[in-house]
Amino acid sequence: DLWLPYFNVTTDITASAMRVHQDCVWRYVRASASYTPYLPPLCDPKDGHLLVDGCYVNNVPDIARNTGARTVIAIDVGSQDETDLCNYGDCLSGWWLLWKRINPWAEKVPDMAEIQSRLAYVSCVRQLEVVKKSAYCEYIRPPIDRFKTMDFGKFDEIYFQDVGYQHGKLLFTGWARGDIIENMLKDHRSADYNDSKRTDCTGADFTDLAEIVSRIEPVQSYLAAEEESDCLTEYEEDGMDTVREEEGEEE
């Protein structure tokens, strides 16, 4: 569906496995947006399996590395989990819990939505730490710690204050002054040079194919455009013999 290479990660709850898709953008983007319990799973027409958000099995960009990306810019927009939670013992009273909800100074007790959100990312915490420390990853964390995953009501505050844009502007300015961007471009040029040495097209996509074709030199004729050969081809000789025979019959 796209000119540039694309992939999408979903969770197959039928097979309890991770799925990586590279086709039908609208369908699998819709599947990866199926965050329970807000949207129902999407039924894959290929095998009938139910697909939901890929965050339940893999929420880190290591798949991009596996598909050929040499540098990965990982932007962490997940909410910061609060660790100062209330120890309510072996049982939980509904009235006591209601009081905790009303009292803004009370210790925090996670609700069902927050528990569900933490369960979604708990399997990826260690994996994320490994990716953050890797040489191929540039990790970015915007100043969004005050926003929670389910804070849909704060969309205008996040969007109109340009929280991500302003942070990215400062960050990339620092990258430009340093050597981060230069190293990225150097790796890209080195990769392009190595690719230009390859003579086969195995596993190339449309973008690679266009680049390869553009590097093919046109076939040069052995004769200059203004020069003509004095040697007749086999077909030309046959044509000349036919003309001579016709002229002899007329005489």
UniProtKB/TrEMBL annotation:
Residues of the PNPLA domain? 1-66
Membrane listed as a keyword: no
Keyword Hydrolase attached: yes
Annotated segments matching region Disordered: 226-251
Record-level GO BP terms: lipid catabolic process
Per UniProt, the keywords (alphabetical) are:
Hydrolase, Lipid degradation, Lipid metabolism
MF terms from GO for this chain are: phosphatidylcholine lysophospholipase activity
GO annotation, cellular component aspect: endoplasmic reticulum
Tell me the superkingdom of the source. Answer: Eukaryota
> What is the name attached to this protein's record?
PNPLA domain-containing protein
Write the lineage as a comma-separated list.
Answer: Eukaryota, Metazoa, Chordata, Craniata, Vertebrata
